[in-house]
Amino acid sequence: MLQAIRPIPTPACAPSGAEPPLRSVLPQAEARRLRDAGDAQAAADASAAQEIVRISNLGKVFGKPEARIRRRLARGESFGEAVGHEQARPALDQVSLSMSRGEIYVIMGLSGSGKSTLVRCVNGLISPTAGQVSVCGTPVGECGPAALRELRMRRMAMVFQSFALLPHMTVEKNVEFGLALRKEDPAARRRRVGEVLEMVGLDGWKSHRIHQLSGGMKQRVGLARALATDPELLIMDEPFSALDPLIRRTLQDELLRLQRELKMTILFVTHDFAEAARIGSRILIMKDGRAVQEGTATDLVARPCNDYVRAFVANVDRMQMMCAGELVAGIPGSQFTGARLPRGALVEVAADAPLSQLLGVLRHGAFVSVADGRSGQRCVVSCSEVFDRIGSLYALGREE
Ligand SMILES: Nc1ncnc2c1ncn2[C@@H]1O[C@H](COP(=O)(O)OP(=O)(O)OP(=O)(O)O)[C@@H](O)[C@H]1O
């Protein structure tokens, strides 16, 4: 049973809807099995199916120089050469990245670093000057208006900082908007609206109008509207930035829960490293249109590549940020394996538990087991190895 996020109480709560379907995801194990069986082509296909977004050498120059740069590119100049000759300042400068199914990929950077331009190239709102974007295998730049509409209607959905809801319409009308555009049957639409409102904790609120809701509730409606179409890619452009810190944290937690349950693939833009670290599987830091460094939050904190990244991660509480699984995976020689442990033999902590929880159990024995609920694997390490790893992370942070 899918667990709905904590419902917002209403005077008269509507009865809960049918259980929302869990979407199928191509299991990593299947790709591994095919590879092991020597079926290289099938394995390559399986891993391509895992890739939801591929961005290759994306470049964007706004304004008059763009046409001249395009002409230079057509004559065989590289993007760097063309931009140099025209003395242009690109909003995006040869950015490449790849997003896998089921991950939350965070893009962050200071204002003007190119985050929104990148997102607008992904959803086809603007055309890049150079490079390619493909979403679920479809090259966005090659789509005509009809194919682009299809891609936006069926494959991706957006959640905006400004909510972008229709303020005088009901919650229900807002949530079913994408389904109505797809001309889906009204009964199926109503059923789906009931399901997603339950998922975001708003069952019972469907007849309220948007202007009657708080900011946090409006963003739940925005999320429900995006989930209603069951997109392969959810793009969230600073979705929680306008909310107060408590609501923001609650919605981050709820997004994480939904992501785990629905295995959503999310491209998430934020200014805030603490937010990126809480929710991101990987984080890309951008500056002046360039990709400066990509990695997990732990990578970026432990090994910032320059002062710009160091400034982003400077005030991060490492203990809050890291989870038990990430910490033990960084211990030299540690390994997650399928080995079963005798019941009660060791203290066990979930891999996604915060580090504080791991530290809390260390006094109960000389070894601790960290269990990854998704893969069913566990990693056993000694308590002294855990302390050494924490020490080395702090030392790295100080040195750099
Ligand atoms: N339509 C446009 N015309 C001209 N320049 C633009 C346009 N859109 C963006 N830019 C420029 O491109 C660069 C990147 O802007 P972009 O909005 O992508 O940054 P951002 O990281 O999303 O910033 P913010 O966090 O403030 O939204 C900036 O220098 C901006 O001025």
TrEMBL record:
Family matches, as Gene3D superfamilies: P-loop containing nucleotide triphosphate hydrolases
Region described as Disordered: spans on this chain: 1-22
Keywords: ATP-binding, Cell membrane, Membrane, Nucleotide-binding
Alphabetical list of InterPro entries matching this protein: AAA+_ATPase, ABC_osmolyte_uptake_ATP-bind, ABC_transporter-like_ATP-bd, ABC_transporter-like_CS, P-loop_NTPase
Domain ABC transporter: 53-313
PANTHER family noted in UniProt: GLYCINE BETAINE/PROLINE BETAINE TRANSPORT SYSTEM ATP-BINDING PROTEIN PROV, GLYCINE BETAINE_PROLINE BETAINE TRANSPORT SYSTEM ATP-BINDING PROTEIN PROV
Protein name as annotated: ABC transporter domain-containing protein
Organism: Pigmentiphaga soli
